[in-house]
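User: I'm new to structure prediction. If I give you an amino acid sequence, what do you actually give back? Let's try with this one:
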Amino acid sequence: MDTHSKHDHCFCRLASCESSVDKIQRAIKTSKLNKRPVHILPLIVLSQFAGTSLWFVGNAILPDIQRSLNIQTNAPGDITSVVQLGFIAGTLIFAIFSIADRVTSAKVFFVSSLIAALSNVSIIWFCKNMARLICLTISNGIFLVQAFTRWE
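Assistant: Good question. You get back a string of structure tokens that encode the predicted 3D arrangement of the chain. For your 152 residues, that looks like this:
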């Protein structure tokens, strides 16, 4: 009699486990994860590509800027260093103010990418001397931090 009641107890536990598994499977099938639009991943990849390309745009137009501003020949190395200095400053600013923890990563990425892109475009429009070039390049570097923002 004791053996029979033991098996009944195991069967009840097994039945409750099976119903729990069924509940979990139903929850997975109806979750928001399965309803995610197909275009999201390609959009993120394209956005990351556009965001990280801001590193290279400045170097691509640097020879033209060098000619238009009559800048000396060692300027490309200096400008590249200024972008890196801006990136380090941006990292410190984002870390000190815990921006990544306070604001959603999508907003940080969007706003930072927009400001960095505007900094790059402003080089074409407003860059009349080396001081402005350095300010705009540092601004670009500061907001390049977005490229390394974690996605949630």
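You can read the tokens as a compact description of the fold. Here is one thing that stands out. Residues 2-30 form the longest helix (29 residues).
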